[in-house]
Amino acid sequence: PRGSIANWVLGNHDNSRIASRLGVARADLYNIALQTLPGIAVTYYGEEIAMVDQWISWPDTIDPAACNTDEATYTLYSRDPVRTPFQWNNGTNAGFSNATKTWLPVADGYKELNVEQQLLAPRSHLKTFIQLTHYRKRRLLAEGDFELHVVDRELVLYRRKVARVGEAVIALNFGDQPVQGLPLRKVFSGVRRGKMEVVASSLQVPVTAGATIDPEQFALPANSGIVLQRIVGPNPIVA
């Protein structure tokens, strides 16, 4: 409603993690949407590195909703799989605690999926998330107008625009096939022909922040997103 502020939430302590629910390949896609839509972005811990649900055995289960059932059916009610310790590094208890035992077991795969590894990698879910959270503080996303179009059901395009600052265009491909060419000039008025700068992109996108592309000639991979900008004036941090 007019005058209201949207509150965007992908996951929480009661629901399956996004990377498990919708696929690891789509983790960046949804984080791009979360961080670029107008309003408040709420991130549940682990979404920034694409943590996944962890199976918890009956003896290790602590969620009252599950403990009040039985070993045959507890997994239908347990929320413990989304509440495992945050994965900081590949050390003891994933760097979360130096205790002998944590409240819930650390998830399998933490030695490869953790903050430390993603900071060391040339590209990672975490580095994309950091780019997005930094960019949302700038004027284009903090104050920009919002115009959204759905193209062929699977491609979503929206623009954030501030006069005398420029425009940011976000392209989200929710489909399982690449989209050949982003029809920005067909759906948005006043978009100039030519290249735009990449601000952030999903891991499967072959271009990274700082590169320039011609959107009309660019193929956006399946299950991926990209943030583009064209700046004509100062775009300072305002939030």
UniProtKB/TrEMBL annotation:
Domain Glycosyl hydrolase family 13 catalytic residue range list: 4-143
Under Gene3D superfamilies, the record lists:
Glycosidases
Q: Glycoprotein: is it a keyword of this entry?
A: no
Question: Which BP terms from GO are recorded?
Answer: carbohydrate metabolic process
Listed A to Z, the keywords are:
Signal
A Pfam family of this chain: Alpha-amylase
PANTHER family assigned: ALPHA-AMYLASE FAMILY MEMBER (PTHR10357), MALTASE A1 (PTHR10357:SF233)
The identity of this protein, by name, is: Probable salivary maltase
Q: Which organism is it from?
A: Anopheles darlingi
